[in-house]
Amino acid sequence: MMVGTWRWSGRVTQHCPREGRSGISTQSSPPSPQPLWRQRNFAVFWTAQTLSVLGDSFALIALPLLVLQATGSLARMGLLTAVGGAASVVAGVFAGVVVDRVDRRRLLIGCDLVRMVLYGAIPLVWVFGPRIWLLYGVLPLCEAVGTFFAVGYVTVVRGLVATERLTEANGRLNATAAAAGVLGPVCAGLVAAWAGPASAVGVDAASFGVSAACLLLVRIRPRPADDRAGPTENRAARRAGLWRDLRAGVSFLYGHPVLRSLTALLFGFSFLTLGLTDLVIYHVKHDLGHDDGTVGTVMACGALGTIAGSLLVARIRRRFGFGWAWAGATAVCGLAFAGLGWTRDVAVVAGLSATFLGCVGIAGTCSMSLRQEVTPEPLLGRVTSAFWTLHYSAAPIGAAALTWSAERHGTAPVALVAGGLCVVIAAVALFTPVRRSGRPS
Description:
Growth Hormone, Chain: A, 2 domains, disordered N terminus
């Protein structure tokens, strides 16, 4: 169960010219009556993104297995994960600036090719014997490059589909990403068992090569040369320093009432929920006495919830509007979280996990779609990067606090308190501009 899904959807989404009273941009692309899967550019991009997530999922299993095979040390596995995570956070600070300055399609292709080469070096070197130092060099670089890919991916979607289809498109992308996130670790484990973890890393590298080849076939609508500023402003922006560029995304978030409120609300939500996966694993294994296979089943059920939420999100947002859809999904997340620590039935734990992640998928996809709709094109990368960095900044501390408290006081009371606070966050949202945004017609 990967709470991080929320991040890539919005682990899921200021002055804004041409926006209405709700804060939603009234500018839109011409409607496209074709189903998304029949729109060639989106369909090819959809395939490329699914393959990219599949590759990431292979690495999630194969690299720790390599460390375990070579050292037998759990601590060394944890250190590798920590190094990769730190590189991702640092890259996130600068990713938006880069994405907004370069050709985004070429950036995505370059990110896939770099990861193909870096991951591909591991099985080649492993032929001559384990080289643990290589993993500590490759993984941070790949995690950093993956962050650039993720920010670029968010900005590219708006150039592939009409504005009114963004929520539907993001839901489809998130659903298949969730499916790939389940299939990847399973396949990686099978390949590692059959041919060794290094071979699984090789398959990972190949998936990025195929993804890059798919992206070569995609045609993205060119960004307007001047959709928010005149030539003078554009030249001045190009001359602006790095610090000014870094502040641009934060300034837009602060100036847009809906995004400002959403960032603050998600700061609290991420703090409370990032450690949920660890809490569920601890509850299933230690409180309920089940084995690793049961833990895997519970996590698979959670992923199925993500797929269901991603497929339903467009319909839910059209029916209720952004504000009520986001607040309602967040409230249900809190209720599911509150019940996780109390139930003694593993089937109920699986159901609550699926409910939690399904609602994370709904709220996160709504969030990402909103940012794509209201953010001026030249700022989209920086706003996305700033949004993720700000609302995730305290999440690791929250995860440590949650798991420490659960170990000390038990999972039931900690889950109840954390889930209850998530419901409070949803209630607070109804007293902010979030509630008034995107009312259904």
